[in-house]
C-alpha cells in the first residue's frame, strides 16, 4: 500500500513495486488520477492495483485506510506512508488551521496507519513499513521540519520495539526531489542549488536497498548524508540560518 501514490515519490514507489511484480493498494485524494494510475500500472506490468480514495487530513479518510490495513483476509505486506505536503510561508505566515492539517497528515495519520499495519504484520510474523520523512527532520525548518522529526523518532523507536516480531520499519529522509510537492509548497526550482535536486526513481531504488538491508533510517544520497553529518558539527545558529532560507521566499516585513 502506498499513500499519496499518484505523484512524486509515491508514484515512483508504485512504478518500481509494480515493475517488481507486486500487487498494489493505491491511496490518494483524487479518484480519477488513482484509476488512471491503476490502469496504467496494470497495462504496463500486469499487476492488480486496488484504488482507495482517502483524504488523510480527515478522520474518515484515515479510518478508511486503517480498515483496509486491518483486513487479514487481504493482508498488506508493505506500507509506504508517503502522503504529505508543505505549507507556503513561514511560521505565523501560515494559518493555524493549515498547520494543524499538516500535523494530522504527517503525524496522526502516520501513527494510526503504522499501528494498523504493524498489528496485522506482527500477527503474521512478517511485513514492513516505510515512513517518508525528510532531510528537514535534521534541520530547524519550522512546523514542517518538526513534523518530519517526529516521524523519524517514532519510526526508529517502533523499529526497535518490533524487531523481534519480524516487522521492519524504516524512516526515509529524502532531500529536494523534482516532484509536484515543492511547487505546491511554493518552492521555486531556481531558489534551490541545482546540485541539491534528486531524481525520484533513483531515490526509491536506494531506499528499497536500504530497507532490504534492515536499516531503520535511510538518507539515500551521499550529498545529503554529508550535509547531515556537517550539520551535527556546525554551529546550530549557522545551520538554522541556512536551513530556514534555502528554497524559501524572502521574509515578509
UniProtKB/TrEMBL annotation:
Entry keyword annotation includes Ion transport: no
GO cellular component: membrane
GO molecular function: oxidoreductase activity
Pfam families reported for this sequence: adh_short (PF00106)
Keyword Oxidoreductase carried by entry: yes
SUPFAM superfamilies: NAD(P)-binding Rossmann-fold domains
InterPro entries recorded: NAD(P)-bd_dom_sf, SDR_fam
Alphabetically ordered keywords of this record: Oxidoreductase
Superkingdom as given in the UniProt entry: Bacteria
Family: Belongs to the short-chain dehydrogenases/reductases (SDR) family.
Name of the protein in its database record: Putative dehydrogenase
Source species: Streptomyces sparsogenes DSM 40356
Amino acid at each position: 500500500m502506498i499513500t499519496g501514490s499518484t505523484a512524486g515519490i509515491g508514484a515512483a514507489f508504485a512504478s518500481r513495486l509494480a515493475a517488481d511484480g507486486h500487487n498494489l493498494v493505491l491511496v490518494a485524494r483524487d479518484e480519477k488520477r488513482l484509476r488512471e494510475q491503476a490502469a496504467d500500472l496494470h497495462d504496463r506490468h500486469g499487476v492488480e492495483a486496488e484504488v482507495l480514495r482517502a483524504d488523510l487530513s480527515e478522520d474518515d479518510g484515515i479510518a478508511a485506510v486503517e480498515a483496509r490495513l486491518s483486513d487479514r483476509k487481504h493482508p498488506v505486506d508493505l506500507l509506504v506512508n508517503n502522503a504529505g505536503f508543505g505549507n507556503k510561508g513561514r511560521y505565523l505566515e501560515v494559518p493555524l488551521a493549515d498547520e494543524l492539517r499538516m500535523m494530522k497528515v504527517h503525524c496522526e495519520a502516520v501513527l494510526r496507519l503504522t499501528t494498523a499495519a504493524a498489528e496485522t504484520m506482527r500477527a503474521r510474523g512478517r511485513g514492513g513499513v516505510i515512513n517518508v520523512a525528510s532531510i528537514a527532520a535534521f534541520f530547524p525548518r519550522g512546523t514542517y521540519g518538526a513534523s518530519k522529526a517526529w516521524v523519524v523518532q517514532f519510526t526508529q523507536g517502533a523499529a526497535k520495539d518490533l524487531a523481534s516480531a519480524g516487522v521492519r520499519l524504516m524512516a526515509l529522509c529524502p532531500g529536494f526531489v523534482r516532484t509536484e510537492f515543492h511547487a505546491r509548497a511554493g518552492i521555486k526550482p531556481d531558489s534551490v542549488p541545482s546540485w541539491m535536486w534528486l531524481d525520484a526513481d533513483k531515490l526509491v531504488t536506494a531506499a528499497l536497498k536500504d530497507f532490504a538491508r534492515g536499516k531503520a533510517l535511510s538518507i539515500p544520497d551521499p550529498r545529503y548524508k554529508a550535509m547531515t553529518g556537517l550539520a551535527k558539527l556546525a554551529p546550530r545558529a549557522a545551520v538554522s540560518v541556512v536551513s530556514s532560507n534555502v528554497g524559501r521566499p524572502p521574509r515578509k516585513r
